[in-house]
Amino acid sequence: MSKKTSNKIFTTEREGQLHFFHNFGINLDENDVLIANTDGVYKGNIFEFKPNINNTQQVLFQAIKYCSRLRITGHPVPKNILLVSLNQSKMYIFDSGDYFGEIHEIYYGGASKNNDGFAIKNQPIEIDYSMSIGADKVLKLLKENNYTKIRINEDCIVGWAEKFYRENPTAKKGDFLDDKDGGEIRKPIKFKDYILPFKEKTNIKFKYLMDKLNDNLIKKELGAFFTPPAYAKKSAELVRKAIKLVPKDNDYIILDRCAGTGSLESELSDKELEHTIVSTYEYYEYKVLLERFNGRVRHIIPPTDDNVEFSAGFVANADALSEDFVNNEIIKQYIDNPKCTVILFENPPYAEAGAIQTNEARTVRGASWKKSFIAEKMKNEIKGVAKNDLANLFIWSGFEKYLRYETDSYVLFSPVKYFKSQNLVNKVFKKGFIFNRKYFHAGASALSCVLWNNKDNKQEVFDFEIYDIDDKKTPKQDDDEIIFLNNLKLNKVHNLLSDLYDKRPSSNDEKGITIGYDGKESKDVKIRISPLYNENIIGYLVAQSFSFENPRMLSNLFRTAIYNGNGFYLRSDNYLEKLPLFAAGKYPIEEKWYENGTIFKSSDGGDKYTKDKDFLKSCFIFTCLSRYNKCVSFTGSDKRFYKNELCFDNDTLAIEQLGKFKLNGAERELIKIWESVLTEVKKEAKNMKKYDKKFKYGPYQIEMELNTSDKDENNKIIYDYPTLNGELENLKKKLKAYYAKYITPKLFEYELLK
Known about the structure:
Layout: H1 3-6, H2 13-23, E1 41-42, E2 45-50, H3 56-72, E3 77-78, E4 80-85, E5 90-95, H4 100-103, E6 125-128, H5 132-141, E7 147-148, H6 157-167, H7 173-177, H8 183-186, H9 216-222, H10 229-244, E8 251-256, H11 270-273, E9 276-279, H12 283-293, E10 299-301, E11 310-311, E12 314-315, H13 323-326, H14 329-335, E13 340-346, H15 373-381, H16 390-402, E14 409-414, H17 417-420, E15 427-436, E16 446-456, E17 461-470, E18 481-491, E19 510-511, E20 532-533, E21 537-543, H18 551-554, E22 555-558, E23 568-571, H19 575-584, H20 613-625, E24 629-630, E25 634-635, E26 641-642, H21 653-658, H22 665-684, H23 699-706, E27 709-711, E28 717-719, H24 722-749
Parallel strand pairs: 2-4, 8-9, 8-13, 9-10, 13-14, 15-17, 22-24
Antiparallel strand pairs: 1-2, 3-7, 4-5, 5-6, 11-12, 14-16, 15-16, 17-18, 19-20, 21-22, 21-23, 25-26, 27-28
């Protein structure tokens, strides 16, 4: 390596970084170097590059923060910290082990911020790699594969668990966490070069993280979420209201069949715990439960570790859905006692059988709970989708098998659908809270906590209090504070939007084709319908489900039938009155977390909305300008040309219909912006590879096929046609405001949303 090459002057850090990697033979395409937002990790080395290092202490502290981040996210911490001053061709080498304590701290904000005043413990080794002897030393360093072993604690346990299960996909939770025979954290084998043995005898330190530490199989089987302390404390208020309903001279029990590590029970008083019975199905949670509450609660089921019937990571005789558990003698003595009041206090696991697989919802296929004793009993009593939800098995069996008298109660955490749309519970609603599911290690959405009194009652409207959490004091969840937001009236729903489907056949329908969720013709999928073609068919509308779960699949609009057949054909004589169903499904629930899970779609108002011509106009304009409208122009495998008629390009049915409406100022502005979009498309058409002059384009197809882009060296998106992209972004913004003003209020007025 020549001195001349190494003395190249770099104007940006990125330029120098790439030159360094190239010069020393580090291939970024073949090695996972740029991880965890670092400047690079290669074997046992972490890099921090600067065009010029003027303050070694500051740069070292920045690198130490990155080492902390590696530790937390389950990445080995390299032994060598290499600070590279690019324009000086100088490297400063530190041993990360000298900063063991600092690496085990948590740092907030950008790693490059607030780094003044850091003290160096040992002077670094300095290398001038512009000289051959220095370059040779660097090359030797880059062959080293040594690491600083880190301590496993609450900060990093989840990251290392995820790494373990990712690298060992058949491993079980015991292989990682076992507190009897060791497990990986206590007797490292896979991670022996990266972590120190965890010395504590139990896993109680990880009580709030136990659900995140489950291996994938157990996650799917249990579907559990743990209750944050702030919400557990609030729910205890409802337990105390239930205790006040206990008749004078009665004993009472507080029963939690799915206690996990006892998150709910941690907020009960010692006196209340003396009345509490807890159980949990997952073995390592049971072990924590036993350690935390043995001697404090009335009963733990099973009573001791010696009583455990262990099966593949589960406590078989603590399966709340089994017949043996329903008949458990410990519990049954209280259920059979008329002088004992029963209070259920539970956060049941949530999982839907046969649901669409997502990362946010713990959805499960083929889970064993579907064949449980309770599931079989429930099938005989409950019809419809309610029986397909794991949580509902707990809810139904709670009322059916444990609550007997009107003074019995159920304090229950669950998504609201069990009473809002599934009609599973028709009891006296005493009080209810809405909590943010974000703090249950899930996506931000509404989770209800309700005190039900075991007295029959039919109710349509429910009054809730909404509470969020101030998590600025994390990572110690015990310090989180609850925040009251506002009150909410929650209405039941009864009829699906799909009740308004128009399934009329036409005498001249022919065999057609199907498409996929991208709007293009479907390939290599199981087609579940007999697709139709007719010149009067202009679209296919999907408006499934009450809830907004999986909105891009359960609320959609295509040029022709989706392969699974879960919608209906829009024809030239019905599309105008049916487009509000599409508009209802595009309500932006993500803007307020508590709307996600409480606002449902419905047809409870029937077709009265069809009499409102202005509303039909608004939904029509929204649909034709929405990027969620996946109608596209294309030529099918049947050699037919499918023209997008639901867009405001030239010579479409939508253009013809638009001319019949009197537009207000906001609508004229939207059309003007759209015309600017089309102008840009026509202007750049000769440069667009996928532009087809016979196509009629809507926003979706323009965005997917014509508004092309690439990424620069900093991973920033660079659009090929920035003016076109700007007009599309402007259209989105204005359309959103239009929807909020002209569509949203009427969706609620006509009960298309409740």
